Amino acid sequence: MSVVPIRLFGDPVLRTRAAEVTDFGPELGRLIDDMFETMDRHNGAGLAATQIGVESRVFVFNCGGMRGHIVNPVFTVEGDDTQTGPEGCLSIPGIQASCTRAAVVTVSGVNRDGVPLHFTAEDIVARAIQHETDHLDGVLFLQRLEPTIRKGAMRAVRESEWFAAGVTSSDDPGAYPTTWVHEPDEAGMTPSRVAE
Ligand SMILES: [Zn+2]
């Protein structure tokens, strides 16, 4: 197992739709092990394979008291409830923004051995499932923000040390100071260090 560099905003792989996994051999197991180790090194809540440059539909997560991996994930939204809270991304280090997501989702997929899995999640686990599945479709959380918040987040990205330097992969995204982007009436919200 090894920690691998995380691709940062600006790397085209983050805008790529990953392919369904069809080979459940040892290479998939090694990929998942590397993803766990890399997520843990950065204290992430989740990590998608595209974030380490691998175009396969796999993500790992560790949040809300749950830890796991899902291969070929597909989720459906349950009900109309939404949740709004701080969200971040290991591929966009140092930026946290208020993001609205479905409150409850049901996810299906398989594990590394191809065994089907299916569960319903809420709160941060539901948020992670949506965030990571988006990654596998080449979608970043910036695209899920309200327009005014997105503007602020994009400004923070442009002003970030790593983006200004043209850096597109990092061994230590946690090294960057956090900028919290939110609507003025949310000023009292406390940003947490949640990054996926
Ligand atoms: Zn992310």
From TrEMBL:
Keyword Iron in record: yes
Keywords carried by this UniProt record: Hydrolase, Iron, Metal-binding, Protein biosynthesis
Cofactor binding summary note: Binds 1 Fe(2+) ion.
Binding residues for Fe cation: 89, 131, 135
Pfam family, one: Pep_deformylase
Enzyme class per UniProt: hydrolase
Matches recorded under InterPro entries: Peptide_deformylase, Peptide_deformylase_sf
Similarity comment: Belongs to the polypeptide deformylase family.
Protein's name in the database: Peptide deformylase
